């Protein structure tokens, strides 16, 4: 991992108002983050792009906004109460909790670093670990830790507990019994499946899309906004005929990958990987992985959930959730909004050398940029600020703009580069004579003169969602 770059990224996100640690004045809260003034704009733009590409350009997909709290039977029916577990091992002396497979992989990495040559032995350990993980054989993994004599990385103790399951859901205590904060938005879709179908006369195949918060008690949370306890998902459940399962599974894998590639972050940064270990509800699944600063990791999951959820909700709710007497199958696409934010932020943040100077620039796709354009007067006199302010006021109703005059023009450009503003317009003495302004592009720093009347159209063409959405039409 390029840890220097990762630290620089986290610090840039904070300095420029994208992401702050939650409750920082009280020392922070593990694995919870807040989005600042530019972070929230970027996040909203990502949501709008996803929402429009799912619902607006697919006439058979509609939206939903279901609540975070649901009847506790939802989570019994969905299998989350019994099966949504992660397995951990505790050290009795340090009182620290670890994922057992991480302890073993770190042991192997350490050996390799120290020049340990017996590759056969190393491969044997890793393949035994993989086999046991696939079979959920945590007893064997516990034995492996014992055999390898693995000690606590902090205190060196080998005084381990057994490996135990921990449910990942947060509980909310109520007098009548516990409620849970939802760990996926999907269940709000399943429990409203019939309402949506009936109220909109939907015919199979059709989809329901939703963006919303999910909560998981991630015991080992690292890597900034990659793994959080409170995060946002953008999920879509597509209801189909059972015999068309593979057709739609392949279709959504293709469509979702294309959607990501259109962001232009670099095709080599993506991998589509079939799941070797499926979630309890899935019968087939694959991940779209992204090359984050710490390596390739899951960003979006595409699963076939077959009739797992609707069938179980029928049993628990005793309500019929069928279309013409049969339960549809479901293909799900599930994208982590915060992970996509991190993917965009990390691959757009660049340090560039310019004639001995350096500039930091956030080359975000322009239609996602928090601010679309900045308007500056070249100097703070001779009526230029007034002209600049008038242009800003005329255009702010149509575009997300910034007006700034506090510093020298060079410094104003640098600040907009750092927050990813794709266009800057500077009002100078020629503006007074010719009604033209200097337009500067963030990425190339090229400048040209344009007429004041053209500014709005240029911003729309260069930064609107329209062009990218058009590319998604098939
Ligand atoms: N409904 C299916 C589902 O929830 P998942 O693979 O557990 O599947 C889907 O999660 C996506 O949600 C992941 O691909 C990831 O992008 C995001 N995600 C999951 N846990 C997360 C966490 N702790 N922090 C941030 N994003 C997370």
Task: Describe the protein.
- By secondary structure, the chain is of the alpha+beta class.
- It has three domains: 3-70 and 168-346, 2-Layer Sandwich (BirA Bifunctional Protein, domain 2), CATH 3.30.930.10; 85-167, Herpes Virus-1 (2-Layer Sandwich); 371-473, 3-Layer(aba) Sandwich (Rossmann fold).
- Helices cover 38% and strands 26% of the residues.
- The strands form six sheets. A seven-stranded mixed sheet has the order 3-9-10-14-13-12-11, with helices on both faces. Strands 18-17-19-20-21 form a five-stranded mixed sheet, sandwiched between helices.
- The longest helix is centred in the first third of the chain and has 20 residues, at 37-56.
- Bound molecules: glycyl-adenosine-5'-phosphate (GAP).
- Glycyl-adenosine-5'-phosphate is lined by residues 184, 186, 216, 218, 227-228, 231, 233, 235, 298-301, 332, 334-336, 338-339.
Largest pleated sheet? 7 strands, mixed
Assign the CATH architecture of the largest domain.
2-Layer Sandwich
| CATH level 1 class label of the largest domain | Alpha Beta
What is the tally of beta strands? 21
Q: Do you know the CATH topology of the largest domain?
A: BirA Bifunctional Protein, domain 2
Give the domain tally. Answer: 3
Quick one: overall form?
globular
Helix share of residues?
Answer: 25-40%
Radius of gyration: 26 Å
SS class: alpha+beta
Quaternary structure classification: single chain
Q: Please state roughly what percent of the residues sit in beta strands, choosing from under 5%, 5-15%, 15-25%, 25-35%, 35-45% or over 45%.
A: 25-35%
**CATH homologous superfamily of the largest domain, by name?**
Bira Bifunctional Protein, Domain 2
